[in-house]
Amino acid sequence: MRTVEWRGKPVWILKRTPEMIESLKKTDADVADPNSKRTDFSETPDYALNEWRSIRKDILVVVGICPHLGCSPSSRFQTGAQPSLPDSWQGGFLCPCHGSTFDLAGRVYKNKPAPDNLQVPRYMFEGENKLVIGKDEKGEA
User: Fold this and answer.
1) What's the pLDDT score for residue 141?
2) 10-residue stretch averages of pLDDT, the chain, 141 residues long
3) In sequence order, what are the residues at sequence separation of 6 or more whose Cβ sits closer than 8 angstroms to the Cβ of residue 97?
4) What pLDDT, on the 0 to 100 scale, is given for residue 21?
5) Is 68 annotated in the active site?
6) CA angle, 137 as apex, 135 and 139 as ends, to 5°?
7) What pTM value is reported for the model?
């Protein structure tokens, strides 16, 4: 995972392994908004209205700020039981301030303080290895 700054906010770019991508199916029933249909916190770009919340399954791009009170969650990629995490943990992010948890697509788990998924900013790929944050193929910012 790499963190970059965009508009003064941390943006996480996570290269997901095939195992990480497969784990998303296991968390569908546990997350509050599996297909990013809610728009309470922010509108999700059309290309992220899917289970993996991204243009490419292997690359996640999300703003690393919890929609509850603006804390910055920490990565918890190790699977399995851990303090403050469920025994069935598949990896993801934990906001230590109030206990909100997010899967490897930034989808918030049910019954957590965070009201919504982590925000997906508008972004696009220019070529295979260049990512542009803040605009997309439609030219929208």
Assistant:
1) 62
2) 94 96 92 79 82 92 86 89 88 88 94 89 90 81 62
3) 66, 68, 69, 71
4) 96
5) no
6) 55
7) 0.90
What gap in Å lies between CA 60 and CA 111, rounded to an integer? 24
pLDDT value of residue 113: 84
Q: Which residue type is seen at 45?
A: P
Which one of 26, 98, 110, 135 is the catalytic residue? 98
Contact 31, 108 (CB under 8 A): yes
Alpha-carbon distance of 94 to 48, in angstroms, equals 21
Beta-carbon count within 10 A of 5 CB: 9
Tokens of 113: 């303080």
Grouping H, G, I as helix, E, B as strand and the rest as coil, residue 132 is strand
Instruction: Please give the pLDDT value at position 102.
Output: 94
Q: What are phi and psi of 19, to 5 degrees?
A: -65, -40
DSSP 24: H
Of 65, 32, 63, 36, give the one whose Cα is nearest residue 48.
Answer: 36
Within 13 A of 90's CA, how many CA atoms are on the CB side?
23
